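Long-time lurker. I teach an intro course on protein structure, and each term I like to show students one example going from raw sequence to a predicted 3D structure in token notation. This year I'd like something fresh instead of my usual example. Would anyone be willing to generate the tokens for the chain below so I can use it in lecture? Attribution to the forum is fine with me.
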Amino acid sequence: MTDDKKTTILIVDDEMVINKVYTEGMRDEGFSVISAMNGKDGLEIALKEKPDIILLDILMPIMDGLTMMQKLRDTNSYGKSVPIILLTNLSASEDKIMSAITKNEPAYYLVKSDWSLSDVVDKVRERLRKHP
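-- Reply from a regular --
Happy to contribute to a lecture. Here you go:
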């Protein structure tokens, strides 16, 4: 990626406060940010805008994050390879989450309550380095 193009992050989270905090925080760190409030809109935006990485909540109305991720992975080469960080209040020890993560690489998860915004920024940068 060239230095003159900002890295674009898609944030998909139905919790308005979290969506806003992540959006503003990522912009403050120099990222270009687009956001959606549910998986259906997130999927449409991802396929149209092709962000460099996606922060994706799991529990959302209309279309949950795991369904969105699966549909994205089933679409095309972009959808199969874009890094996704799942944001959840659930433990990743739950079989459904672990199965989705391992089946849909590159996918990672963060338990929201365990991570500060600066930790999430660091994780985004780490993932982008591993999947340029």
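Some talking points for your students: Residues 8-125 form a domain with the Rossmann fold fold (CATH 3.40.50.2300). DSSP finds six helices and five strands in the chain.
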